[in-house]
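Lab notebook, bench 4. We co-purified these components, and the gel suggests they stay together. Before we commit to crystallization screens, I want a quick structural picture of the whole thing.
Request: model the full complex, all chains together.
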Amino acid sequence: MDGEQPSTAQPQPQSRLVQTFACPNCGAPVTIRASGHTVVVTCRGCQSLIDVATPNHQIVSRYVSRRKFEPLIPLGSRGELFGNPYEVIGFMVRSDTESEFRWQEYLLFNPYHGFRWLAVANGHWNFLTMIKEQPSGASDGDVRYDGKNFALYFRGRAQVDYVFGEFYWRVRANDVVKVADHIAPPQILSVELDQGERVWSLGQYVEPDVVRGAFKVETPFPVKVGVAPNQPSPYPRIGGPFFFFVALLLAIQVLTDAFAGKEPVYQSGFEYARTAPDKVKVTPPFELKGRASDVEVVSVAPVNNHWLELRMSLIETNTGKTVSFEQGVEFYSGSDSDGAWSEGKHRHRILLSSVPAGTYYLTITPQGSTDTSYSVAVRRDVPAWSNFWIALTLLTLPAMLVGLLRYNFETRRWADSEFSPYQSSSEEEE
Amino acid sequence: MRRFFLILGILTCCTLAYANYRGWVVLNSVFPRTWEHKEPGKPGIFHK
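Here is the predicted assembly.
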Protein backbone atom coordinates (compact mmCIF):
# COMPACT_ATOMS: atom_id res chain seq x y z
CA MET A 1 0.00 0.00 0.00
CA ASP A 2 2.88 2.30 -0.52
CA GLY A 3 2.92 5.10 -3.03
CA GLU A 4 1.13 8.33 -3.19
CA GLN A 5 -2.56 8.70 -2.80
CA PRO A 6 -3.92 11.37 -5.10
CA SER A 7 -4.61 14.00 -2.52
CA THR A 8 -6.93 16.12 -4.59
CA ALA A 9 -8.79 13.78 -6.89
CA GLN A 10 -10.92 16.13 -8.91
CA PRO A 11 -14.36 15.01 -10.00
CA GLN A 12 -14.14 13.67 -13.51
CA PRO A 13 -16.77 12.14 -15.71
CA GLN A 14 -16.59 8.35 -15.73
CA SER A 15 -16.00 8.27 -19.50
CA ARG A 16 -12.79 10.28 -19.11
CA LEU A 17 -11.51 7.96 -16.41
CA VAL A 18 -12.01 4.72 -18.35
CA GLN A 19 -9.57 4.10 -21.18
CA THR A 20 -8.82 1.03 -23.26
CA PHE A 21 -5.70 0.18 -25.23
CA ALA A 22 -4.12 -2.91 -26.76
CA CYS A 23 -1.62 -4.87 -24.69
CA PRO A 24 1.83 -4.30 -26.22
CA ASN A 25 2.68 -7.93 -25.43
CA CYS A 26 -0.34 -9.95 -26.56
CA GLY A 27 -2.63 -7.40 -28.15
CA ALA A 28 -5.55 -8.13 -25.84
CA PRO A 29 -7.63 -5.09 -24.87
CA VAL A 30 -6.58 -3.60 -21.55
CA THR A 31 -8.98 -1.30 -19.69
CA ILE A 32 -7.91 1.42 -17.23
CA ARG A 33 -10.67 2.43 -14.79
CA ALA A 34 -8.81 5.21 -12.99
CA SER A 35 -7.06 6.91 -15.84
CA GLY A 36 -4.83 9.72 -14.65
CA HIS A 37 -4.25 7.96 -11.33
CA THR A 38 -3.21 4.48 -12.46
CA VAL A 39 0.51 3.90 -12.97
CA VAL A 40 0.59 0.17 -13.76
CA VAL A 41 -2.03 -2.27 -15.01
CA THR A 42 -1.97 -5.99 -15.68
CA CYS A 43 -3.18 -7.49 -18.93
CA ARG A 44 -5.95 -9.99 -18.37
CA GLY A 45 -4.68 -12.01 -21.35
CA CYS A 46 -0.98 -12.49 -20.60
CA GLN A 47 -0.68 -11.00 -17.10
CA SER A 48 2.05 -8.65 -18.33
CA LEU A 49 2.52 -5.64 -16.13
CA ILE A 50 2.22 -2.49 -18.24
CA ASP A 51 3.43 0.95 -17.22
CA VAL A 52 0.69 3.32 -18.39
CA ALA A 53 2.44 6.42 -17.01
CA THR A 54 4.81 6.29 -19.97
CA PRO A 55 3.48 7.47 -23.33
CA ASN A 56 4.14 4.24 -25.20
CA HIS A 57 2.87 1.90 -22.45
CA GLN A 58 6.04 0.00 -21.71
CA ILE A 59 5.89 -3.51 -20.35
CA VAL A 60 7.32 -3.57 -16.85
CA SER A 61 7.45 -7.35 -16.62
CA ARG A 62 6.13 -10.34 -18.49
CA TYR A 63 5.54 -12.02 -15.19
CA VAL A 64 3.25 -14.97 -15.30
CA SER A 65 2.51 -16.27 -11.82
CA ARG A 66 2.88 -19.98 -11.39
CA ARG A 67 -0.06 -19.83 -9.07
CA LYS A 68 -3.09 -17.84 -9.98
CA PHE A 69 -5.20 -16.41 -7.19
CA GLU A 70 -8.88 -15.79 -7.73
CA PRO A 71 -10.17 -12.62 -6.10
CA LEU A 72 -13.14 -13.04 -3.78
CA ILE A 73 -14.58 -9.80 -5.19
CA PRO A 74 -14.37 -9.69 -9.00
CA LEU A 75 -12.50 -6.71 -10.42
CA GLY A 76 -14.92 -4.11 -11.74
CA SER A 77 -17.44 -4.80 -8.96
CA ARG A 78 -19.04 -1.72 -7.50
CA GLY A 79 -20.39 -1.32 -4.03
CA GLU A 80 -21.04 1.18 -1.29
CA LEU A 81 -18.96 1.09 1.89
CA PHE A 82 -19.05 3.63 4.71
CA GLY A 83 -21.41 5.82 2.72
CA ASN A 84 -19.42 6.07 -0.52
CA PRO A 85 -19.49 4.03 -3.72
CA TYR A 86 -16.27 2.31 -4.78
CA GLU A 87 -15.12 0.19 -7.67
CA VAL A 88 -12.67 -2.67 -7.24
CA ILE A 89 -9.80 -1.95 -9.64
CA GLY A 90 -6.85 -3.89 -8.22
CA PHE A 91 -6.19 -7.18 -6.49
CA MET A 92 -3.01 -8.17 -4.73
CA VAL A 93 -1.91 -11.17 -2.68
CA ARG A 94 0.84 -10.62 -0.16
CA SER A 95 2.57 -12.75 2.44
CA ASP A 96 4.81 -12.43 5.45
CA THR A 97 8.32 -13.37 4.36
CA GLU A 98 9.01 -15.27 7.57
CA SER A 99 5.81 -17.13 8.29
CA GLU A 100 4.44 -17.21 4.73
CA PHE A 101 1.14 -16.12 6.22
CA ARG A 102 -0.85 -14.83 3.24
CA TRP A 103 -3.57 -12.22 2.86
CA GLN A 104 -5.41 -10.45 0.05
CA GLU A 105 -5.81 -6.75 -0.65
CA TYR A 106 -8.32 -5.09 -2.93
CA LEU A 107 -7.77 -1.60 -4.28
CA LEU A 108 -10.98 0.43 -4.40
CA PHE A 109 -11.42 3.64 -6.34
CA ASN A 110 -13.86 6.49 -6.20
CA PRO A 111 -13.14 9.50 -8.47
CA TYR A 112 -14.30 11.93 -5.75
CA HIS A 113 -12.75 10.26 -2.70
CA GLY A 114 -9.67 8.56 -4.15
CA PHE A 115 -8.34 5.17 -3.22
CA ARG A 116 -9.25 2.82 -0.38
CA TRP A 117 -8.24 -0.72 0.46
CA LEU A 118 -10.05 -3.81 1.56
CA ALA A 119 -7.77 -6.37 3.15
CA VAL A 120 -8.81 -9.89 4.13
CA ALA A 121 -6.85 -12.34 6.24
CA ASN A 122 -8.19 -15.51 7.84
CA GLY A 123 -11.66 -14.48 6.73
CA HIS A 124 -11.50 -11.15 8.61
CA TRP A 125 -11.94 -7.94 6.60
CA ASN A 126 -10.57 -4.43 7.05
CA PHE A 127 -11.40 -1.21 5.23
CA LEU A 128 -8.26 0.93 5.05
CA THR A 129 -7.69 4.57 4.27
CA MET A 130 -4.29 6.15 3.84
CA ILE A 131 -3.66 8.96 6.32
CA LYS A 132 -1.43 11.96 5.87
CA GLU A 133 -0.87 12.75 9.53
CA GLN A 134 1.99 10.87 11.12
CA PRO A 135 0.96 9.15 14.35
CA SER A 136 3.06 10.18 17.30
CA GLY A 137 5.47 7.71 18.89
CA ALA A 138 7.94 5.35 17.31
CA SER A 139 6.66 3.16 14.50
CA ASP A 140 8.45 0.19 16.08
CA GLY A 141 6.49 0.55 19.32
CA ASP A 142 3.04 1.71 20.44
CA VAL A 143 1.81 4.85 18.68
CA ARG A 144 -0.88 7.46 19.32
CA TYR A 145 -3.28 8.68 16.69
CA ASP A 146 -6.52 10.59 16.95
CA GLY A 147 -6.31 10.53 20.76
CA LYS A 148 -6.04 6.75 20.90
CA ASN A 149 -3.16 4.47 21.79
CA PHE A 150 -2.41 1.81 19.20
CA ALA A 151 -0.46 -1.21 20.51
CA LEU A 152 2.19 -2.76 18.35
CA TYR A 153 0.91 -6.11 17.10
CA PHE A 154 3.07 -7.15 14.19
CA ARG A 155 6.36 -6.18 12.63
CA GLY A 156 7.87 -7.89 9.63
CA ARG A 157 8.33 -7.88 5.88
CA ALA A 158 5.54 -8.28 3.38
CA GLN A 159 6.13 -9.67 -0.07
CA VAL A 160 3.89 -9.23 -3.08
CA ASP A 161 2.99 -12.69 -4.36
CA TYR A 162 0.46 -11.77 -7.01
CA VAL A 163 -0.94 -8.63 -8.59
CA PHE A 164 -3.86 -8.17 -10.91
CA GLY A 165 -5.68 -5.09 -12.10
CA GLU A 166 -4.41 -1.54 -11.89
CA PHE A 167 -2.44 0.29 -9.23
CA TYR A 168 -1.29 3.81 -8.54
CA TRP A 169 2.34 2.86 -8.03
CA ARG A 170 4.80 0.60 -9.82
CA VAL A 171 4.01 -2.59 -7.97
CA ARG A 172 5.41 -5.88 -9.13
CA ALA A 173 5.52 -9.42 -7.81
CA ASN A 174 8.24 -10.19 -5.28
CA ASP A 175 8.40 -6.57 -4.09
CA VAL A 176 9.21 -6.59 -0.36
CA VAL A 177 8.47 -3.80 2.12
CA LYS A 178 8.79 -3.48 5.88
CA VAL A 179 5.40 -3.43 7.57
CA ALA A 180 4.06 -2.96 11.08
CA ASP A 181 0.55 -3.18 12.47
CA HIS A 182 -0.70 -1.34 15.54
CA ILE A 183 -4.12 -2.06 16.98
CA ALA A 184 -6.83 -0.28 18.93
CA PRO A 185 -9.86 -2.48 18.17
CA PRO A 186 -11.86 -2.04 16.03
CA GLN A 187 -9.18 0.05 14.33
CA ILE A 188 -5.75 -0.84 13.02
CA LEU A 189 -2.88 1.41 12.00
CA SER A 190 -0.60 -0.12 9.39
CA VAL A 191 2.67 1.40 8.31
CA GLU A 192 4.78 0.42 5.34
CA LEU A 193 8.37 1.49 4.98
CA ASP A 194 9.77 1.42 1.47
CA GLN A 195 12.90 3.25 0.43
CA GLY A 196 12.74 5.56 3.41
CA GLU A 197 9.11 6.54 2.93
CA ARG A 198 6.58 5.72 5.64
CA VAL A 199 2.99 5.31 4.54
CA TRP A 200 0.35 5.01 7.23
CA SER A 201 -3.11 3.53 6.73
CA LEU A 202 -5.98 3.51 9.18
CA GLY A 203 -8.15 0.41 9.01
CA GLN A 204 -11.60 -0.34 10.35
CA TYR A 205 -12.80 -3.88 11.01
CA VAL A 206 -15.70 -4.84 8.73
CA GLU A 207 -17.91 -7.89 9.01
CA PRO A 208 -17.59 -10.17 5.95
CA ASP A 209 -21.33 -10.02 5.28
CA VAL A 210 -21.13 -6.22 5.02
CA VAL A 211 -18.46 -6.46 2.31
CA ARG A 212 -20.26 -9.30 0.55
CA GLY A 213 -23.55 -7.43 0.60
CA ALA A 214 -21.95 -4.16 -0.51
CA PHE A 215 -20.38 -5.68 -3.63
CA LYS A 216 -23.20 -8.18 -4.18
CA VAL A 217 -20.88 -11.17 -4.20
CA GLU A 218 -22.86 -14.38 -4.53
CA THR A 219 -20.15 -16.88 -3.63
CA PRO A 220 -19.70 -17.23 0.13
CA PHE A 221 -16.60 -15.72 1.69
CA PRO A 222 -14.16 -17.89 3.66
CA VAL A 223 -15.27 -18.41 7.23
CA LYS A 224 -13.55 -16.39 9.91
CA VAL A 225 -10.70 -18.22 11.59
CA GLY A 226 -9.55 -17.24 15.07
CA VAL A 227 -9.65 -13.68 16.33
CA ALA A 228 -8.43 -10.85 14.08
CA PRO A 229 -5.92 -8.33 15.50
CA ASN A 230 -8.48 -5.53 15.56
CA GLN A 231 -11.69 -7.56 15.82
CA PRO A 232 -13.97 -5.83 18.33
CA SER A 233 -14.45 -7.88 21.46
CA PRO A 234 -18.02 -8.99 22.13
CA TYR A 235 -17.20 -8.75 25.83
CA PRO A 236 -17.04 -5.12 26.93
CA ARG A 237 -14.93 -3.64 29.71
CA ILE A 238 -17.19 -3.46 32.75
CA GLY A 239 -14.60 -2.70 35.41
CA GLY A 240 -15.79 0.91 35.71
CA PRO A 241 -19.52 0.16 36.11
CA PHE A 242 -18.71 -2.78 38.39
CA PHE A 243 -16.73 -0.71 40.88
CA PHE A 244 -19.31 2.09 40.65
CA PHE A 245 -22.12 -0.29 41.59
CA VAL A 246 -20.03 -1.91 44.36
CA ALA A 247 -19.45 1.56 45.82
CA LEU A 248 -23.17 2.30 45.47
CA LEU A 249 -24.13 -0.97 47.23
CA LEU A 250 -21.69 -0.18 50.02
CA ALA A 251 -23.08 3.33 50.35
CA ILE A 252 -26.64 1.98 50.53
CA GLN A 253 -25.67 -0.53 53.22
CA VAL A 254 -23.64 1.94 55.27
CA LEU A 255 -26.50 4.47 55.16
CA THR A 256 -28.98 1.73 56.13
CA ASP A 257 -26.73 0.82 59.03
CA ALA A 258 -26.32 4.45 60.08
CA PHE A 259 -30.03 5.21 60.04
CA ALA A 260 -31.24 1.86 61.43
CA GLY A 261 -33.13 2.20 64.74
CA LYS A 262 -31.51 -0.85 66.42
CA GLU A 263 -34.10 -0.25 69.14
CA PRO A 264 -34.07 -2.63 72.15
CA VAL A 265 -37.69 -3.60 72.79
CA TYR A 266 -37.40 -6.45 75.26
CA GLN A 267 -34.77 -8.18 77.36
CA SER A 268 -35.12 -10.59 80.25
CA GLY A 269 -33.49 -13.54 81.99
CA PHE A 270 -35.06 -16.92 82.78
CA GLU A 271 -34.22 -20.11 84.60
CA TYR A 272 -34.62 -23.56 83.10
CA ALA A 273 -35.11 -26.51 85.39
CA ARG A 274 -35.68 -29.93 83.81
CA THR A 275 -37.96 -31.02 86.68
CA ALA A 276 -40.14 -27.89 86.70
CA PRO A 277 -43.79 -28.66 85.84
CA ASP A 278 -44.37 -25.60 83.63
CA LYS A 279 -41.36 -24.70 81.56
CA VAL A 280 -43.16 -22.47 79.05
CA LYS A 281 -42.42 -18.78 79.53
CA VAL A 282 -44.61 -15.97 78.26
CA THR A 283 -43.14 -12.51 78.02
CA PRO A 284 -45.06 -9.32 78.73
CA PRO A 285 -46.33 -7.55 75.60
CA PHE A 286 -43.93 -5.17 73.90
CA GLU A 287 -44.44 -2.62 71.14
CA LEU A 288 -42.88 -2.82 67.68
CA LYS A 289 -43.28 0.64 66.17
CA GLY A 290 -42.90 2.27 62.77
CA ARG A 291 -42.77 0.69 59.33
CA ALA A 292 -42.29 -3.04 58.84
CA SER A 293 -38.70 -3.97 59.58
CA ASP A 294 -36.74 -6.91 60.85
CA VAL A 295 -36.61 -8.10 64.45
CA GLU A 296 -33.49 -9.58 66.02
CA VAL A 297 -33.84 -12.21 68.75
CA VAL A 298 -30.68 -13.14 70.65
CA SER A 299 -30.55 -15.96 73.19
CA VAL A 300 -27.64 -16.44 75.56
CA ALA A 301 -27.09 -19.39 77.92
CA PRO A 302 -23.89 -20.11 79.92
CA VAL A 303 -23.95 -23.84 79.16
CA ASN A 304 -20.75 -25.87 79.14
CA ASN A 305 -20.72 -29.35 77.62
CA HIS A 306 -24.50 -29.07 77.48
CA TRP A 307 -27.16 -27.73 75.17
CA LEU A 308 -30.30 -25.67 75.43
CA GLU A 309 -32.97 -25.45 72.76
CA LEU A 310 -35.55 -22.68 72.80
CA ARG A 311 -38.71 -23.01 70.76
CA MET A 312 -40.21 -19.56 70.41
CA SER A 313 -43.24 -17.92 68.92
CA LEU A 314 -43.67 -14.22 68.31
CA ILE A 315 -47.38 -13.53 68.57
CA GLU A 316 -49.24 -10.35 67.69
CA THR A 317 -51.73 -9.78 70.49
CA ASN A 318 -54.61 -8.33 68.45
CA THR A 319 -54.57 -10.50 65.32
CA GLY A 320 -52.95 -13.64 66.71
CA LYS A 321 -50.53 -13.76 63.81
CA THR A 322 -47.61 -15.87 64.87
CA VAL A 323 -44.17 -16.70 63.61
CA SER A 324 -42.42 -19.70 65.15
CA PHE A 325 -38.72 -20.38 65.24
CA GLU A 326 -36.07 -22.24 67.19
CA GLN A 327 -32.85 -21.21 68.81
CA GLY A 328 -30.19 -23.63 69.93
CA VAL A 329 -27.35 -22.82 72.28
CA GLU A 330 -24.64 -25.39 72.80
CA PHE A 331 -21.06 -25.24 73.92
CA TYR A 332 -18.56 -28.03 74.38
CA SER A 333 -14.95 -27.90 75.49
CA GLY A 334 -12.23 -30.25 76.66
CA SER A 335 -8.73 -31.31 75.93
CA ASP A 336 -7.07 -34.19 74.10
CA SER A 337 -3.64 -35.08 72.80
CA ASP A 338 -3.75 -32.00 70.54
CA GLY A 339 -4.48 -29.71 73.48
CA ALA A 340 -7.57 -27.79 74.53
CA TRP A 341 -10.54 -27.61 72.21
CA SER A 342 -13.99 -26.05 72.18
CA GLU A 343 -16.92 -25.85 69.82
CA GLY A 344 -20.28 -24.17 69.75
CA LYS A 345 -21.36 -20.84 71.18
CA HIS A 346 -23.15 -19.50 74.21
CA ARG A 347 -25.16 -17.18 71.96
CA HIS A 348 -27.63 -17.63 69.12
CA ARG A 349 -29.02 -14.89 66.94
CA ILE A 350 -31.93 -14.97 64.52
CA LEU A 351 -33.58 -12.28 62.43
CA LEU A 352 -37.30 -12.23 61.76
CA SER A 353 -37.87 -10.70 58.35
CA SER A 354 -40.15 -7.72 57.81
CA VAL A 355 -42.27 -7.76 60.95
CA PRO A 356 -45.11 -5.18 60.84
CA ALA A 357 -45.76 -2.75 63.67
CA GLY A 358 -47.94 -3.98 66.52
CA THR A 359 -48.03 -5.29 70.08
CA TYR A 360 -46.29 -8.63 70.44
CA TYR A 361 -45.27 -11.13 73.04
CA LEU A 362 -42.99 -14.15 72.99
CA THR A 363 -43.69 -17.66 74.17
CA ILE A 364 -40.57 -19.63 74.97
CA THR A 365 -40.47 -23.38 75.41
CA PRO A 366 -37.02 -24.45 76.58
CA GLN A 367 -35.57 -27.92 76.45
CA GLY A 368 -32.03 -28.74 77.50
CA SER A 369 -29.57 -31.28 78.81
CA THR A 370 -28.99 -29.44 82.10
CA ASP A 371 -30.54 -26.88 84.39
CA THR A 372 -29.35 -23.43 83.40
CA SER A 373 -30.19 -19.77 83.28
CA TYR A 374 -30.71 -18.06 79.92
CA SER A 375 -31.62 -14.65 78.57
CA VAL A 376 -33.57 -13.44 75.58
CA ALA A 377 -33.15 -9.98 73.96
CA VAL A 378 -35.27 -8.50 71.21
CA ARG A 379 -34.24 -5.54 69.04
CA ARG A 380 -36.15 -3.81 66.28
CA ASP A 381 -34.76 -2.57 62.90
CA VAL A 382 -31.33 -4.19 62.95
CA PRO A 383 -29.37 -3.91 59.67
CA ALA A 384 -28.64 -7.23 58.00
CA TRP A 385 -25.30 -7.22 56.20
CA SER A 386 -26.15 -10.56 54.65
CA ASN A 387 -28.32 -8.65 52.17
CA PHE A 388 -25.27 -6.65 51.11
CA TRP A 389 -23.10 -9.75 50.63
CA ILE A 390 -25.79 -11.43 48.54
CA ALA A 391 -26.17 -8.31 46.36
CA LEU A 392 -22.40 -8.11 45.99
CA THR A 393 -22.27 -11.76 44.91
CA LEU A 394 -25.06 -11.21 42.37
CA LEU A 395 -23.07 -8.35 40.89
CA THR A 396 -19.66 -10.00 41.08
CA LEU A 397 -20.47 -13.34 39.45
CA PRO A 398 -21.59 -11.92 36.07
CA ALA A 399 -18.73 -9.41 36.16
CA MET A 400 -16.22 -12.20 36.75
CA LEU A 401 -17.77 -14.26 33.95
CA VAL A 402 -17.59 -11.36 31.48
CA GLY A 403 -14.03 -10.62 32.63
CA LEU A 404 -12.93 -14.20 32.07
CA LEU A 405 -14.56 -14.35 28.63
CA ARG A 406 -12.94 -11.04 27.71
CA TYR A 407 -9.54 -12.24 28.93
CA ASN A 408 -9.91 -15.42 26.90
CA PHE A 409 -10.87 -13.40 23.80
CA GLU A 410 -7.90 -11.05 24.23
CA THR A 411 -5.41 -13.91 24.69
CA ARG A 412 -6.73 -15.46 21.47
CA ARG A 413 -6.38 -12.08 19.73
CA TRP A 414 -2.74 -11.80 20.78
CA ALA A 415 -1.90 -15.48 20.34
CA ASP A 416 -0.09 -14.91 17.02
CA SER A 417 1.71 -11.74 18.08
CA GLU A 418 5.23 -11.66 19.42
CA PHE A 419 4.32 -8.45 21.24
CA SER A 420 1.48 -9.99 23.24
CA PRO A 421 0.95 -8.40 26.67
CA TYR A 422 -0.44 -11.79 27.76
CA GLN A 423 2.82 -13.65 27.31
CA SER A 424 4.28 -15.08 30.50
CA SER A 425 7.92 -14.40 31.32
CA SER A 426 8.81 -18.05 30.64
CA GLU A 427 7.29 -17.80 27.14
CA GLU A 428 9.22 -14.61 26.49
CA GLU A 429 12.48 -16.32 27.49
CA GLU A 430 11.82 -19.07 25.00
CA MET B 1 -23.75 -6.96 27.32
CA ARG B 2 -22.64 -3.66 28.85
CA ARG B 3 -26.27 -2.55 28.90
CA PHE B 4 -27.27 -5.83 30.56
CA PHE B 5 -24.67 -5.25 33.27
CA LEU B 6 -25.81 -1.67 33.81
CA ILE B 7 -29.40 -2.86 34.20
CA LEU B 8 -28.25 -5.64 36.56
CA GLY B 9 -26.31 -3.12 38.64
CA ILE B 10 -29.24 -0.73 38.90
CA LEU B 11 -31.66 -3.55 39.78
CA THR B 12 -29.27 -4.94 42.41
CA CYS B 13 -28.82 -1.55 44.08
CA CYS B 14 -32.56 -0.81 44.02
CA THR B 15 -33.37 -4.27 45.39
CA LEU B 16 -30.86 -3.89 48.24
CA ALA B 17 -32.19 -0.46 49.12
CA TYR B 18 -35.82 -1.64 49.04
CA ALA B 19 -35.06 -4.87 50.93
CA ASN B 20 -33.28 -2.90 53.64
CA TYR B 21 -36.15 -0.42 53.81
CA ARG B 22 -38.73 -3.18 54.12
CA GLY B 23 -36.64 -5.12 56.63
CA TRP B 24 -36.29 -8.17 54.40
CA VAL B 25 -33.52 -10.47 55.54
CA VAL B 26 -32.51 -13.39 53.37
CA LEU B 27 -29.93 -15.29 55.41
CA ASN B 28 -30.31 -16.60 58.97
CA SER B 29 -33.86 -15.34 59.14
CA VAL B 30 -37.48 -16.37 59.35
CA PHE B 31 -39.68 -15.18 56.51
CA PRO B 32 -43.20 -13.86 56.78
CA ARG B 33 -44.53 -16.81 54.81
CA THR B 34 -43.99 -18.90 57.92
CA TRP B 35 -46.42 -16.74 59.86
CA GLU B 36 -49.34 -18.71 61.20
CA HIS B 37 -52.67 -17.52 62.43
CA LYS B 38 -53.55 -18.10 66.07
CA GLU B 39 -56.70 -17.44 67.93
CA PRO B 40 -56.57 -13.82 69.06
CA GLY B 41 -56.70 -12.98 72.72
CA LYS B 42 -55.27 -16.25 73.92
CA PRO B 43 -51.74 -15.56 74.99
CA GLY B 44 -49.52 -18.43 75.91
CA ILE B 45 -51.08 -20.91 73.48
CA PHE B 46 -48.22 -22.41 71.58
CA HIS B 47 -48.56 -24.97 68.83
CA LYS B 48 -45.54 -26.62 67.27
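Residues 243-260+383-411 of chain A form one domain. Worth comparing against the SEC data before the next meeting. Residues 1-13 of chain A have pLDDT under 50 and may be disordered.
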